[in-house]
Amino acid sequence: MKKFFIIVIFVGLLFVTIVFGFKKYGLYVMSNKINTIVLSKEGNDFKRKLLPKAETGFATPEDGKDYRIFNHNQAWFEQQITEGRVERWTQRTSETYYIGKGSSAKAMTHPITLNAYFLKNTTETNKTVIIAHGFGLSGDKYGAWGKMYYDLGYNVLLPDARAHGKSEGNYISFGLQEKDDYTNKQGWIEQVIEKIGPDSEIYLHGGSMGAATMMMVAGEAVPANVKLLIEDCGYADLNIPFRHLKGTILSKLEGQNGAYKFKRNLAGLNLNVPIDEQDINYLFDRFLHVFNERYELAENDRDVLASVSAVQAMNTTALPVLFIHGQSDALVPFKETTETLINSKQSNRNNARYEEYFPANANHGAAIKVDYETYKSKIQAFIAHHTQLIGEQQ
Predict the structure, then answer these.
(1) CA neighbor of 220 nearest in space, from 196, 192, 189, 197
(2) Domain ends where: 280, 304, 328?
(3) Higher model confidence: residue 380 or residue 18?
(4) Largest CB tally within 10 Å, which of 115, 229, 265, 337?
(5) Which residues contact 223 (CB under 8 A, 6 or more apart)?
(6) Do the Cβ atoms of 157 and 143 come closer than 8 Å?
(7) Domain named Serine aminopeptidase S33: which ranges (predicted)?
């Protein structure tokens, strides 16, 4: 009998050891899956499932009363592509990231080709709006914004960010490297000046990740042709959206009844392994470590999110900025984000002019669907006012 109990205890300990080892392995596999979803082009299909429909090129009645206008404009732009009225521009650049850590890290640089959609207005104009899309999407999915600017009389350029759409590249850096695709010598800003003319007036517009990217662009030394920036629901830095994204992704990975679990088959046994808060933090820390190591951003992994910062750029920009943010935004929360960005005016060394439009009932990326005419008129008035001021100063 004693021998039997010893065997039972041994088998039990062995089983517990296997289960805990299995859990550790499962968490490691899950962390790799999360890193693929968030940081690479490979995860773009899954990303679109995480995003509010408001930002994916298709709107529903829940997005606002003007969702039909949005869908019509998006379909119109896609039809222009189908009928060959939209030019395809390309940019040759490179993707650089690091493998390894510290002094042993090896820089990997690969040439990549980026894609953009250009729609020339039928009315001759030297004014072009460059629109940067959001996380996991592509330039053609921002066709409704393109149609709005086209109707206002402007040319429109909608790039696919690196590792998005038809652009090459393996990894997403949330504006860190993407900003260079606008400001380098072969970048989208220089291409507009070269192809449209040296007297080009360029207006920057971005949504979500594209808004943060454009804010970072505005903090660089851009040509005088770039006149202003319209940012729609961008993040001040990565801390806020990533806290939300962490919970969203984990809830999609087989979450049940508010508890995170993963199910796997082990030696014929169906295991339902609970994941506690400590395990969630492990997954998030692994993500931060991979991102930090890839771009050598900071000594402390948790400092990485603040180092990809739009608010730092807002401290230096000389461009007028229109901040648009829906007060019902659940992905990039309104209050904390807008307070940080608007307060940057106090430390802006160039006394940049800021304006605000904060529609009450708009979710992430949905301001254009809540009240289309107001959205359009706010932007039109902002451009008219500040281009007139710029003209008077020249």
Answers:
(1) 189
(2) 304
(3) 380
(4) 229
(5) 189, 190, 193, 202
(6) no
(7) 124-356
For residue 44, being part of any structural domain is answered with: no
Supply the pLDDT for residue 393: 59
- Give residue 34's domain range: 2-39+240-304
CA angle, 322 then 70 then 137, to 5°: 75
Q: Which two tokens stand for residue 123?
A: 């009315």
Predicted TM-score (pTM) of this structure: 0.88
Nearest to residue 160, comparing CAs of 137, 179, 183, 177?
Answer: 137
Q: Is 57 left (phi over 0), alpha (psi -120 to 50) or beta?
A: left
Backbone angles phi and psi of 96, in degrees to 5: -125, 130
| CA neighbor of 70 nearest in space, from 83, 85, 60 | 60
User: How many residues does this entry show for the chain?
Assistant: 394
Contact 189, 130 (CB under 8 A): yes
3-state SS, residue 40: strand
Task: Name the H helices within the chain.
Answer: 2-39, 44-50, 67-82, 143-151, 180-183, 188-196, 209-218, 239-252, 277-295, 304-307, 310-314, 334-343, 367-370, 372-393
End of a domain among 275, 304, 333?
A: 304
Question: What pLDDT digit, counting tens, does each position of 170-196 carry?
Answer: 999 999 999 999 999 999 999 999 999
Cβ atoms within 10 A of the Cβ of 44, count? 17
> Residue 349 has which token pair?
């060394």
| Pair of tokens at residue 37 | 């979803």
**What is d(CA 316, CA 321) in angstroms, rounded to the nearest whole number?**
12
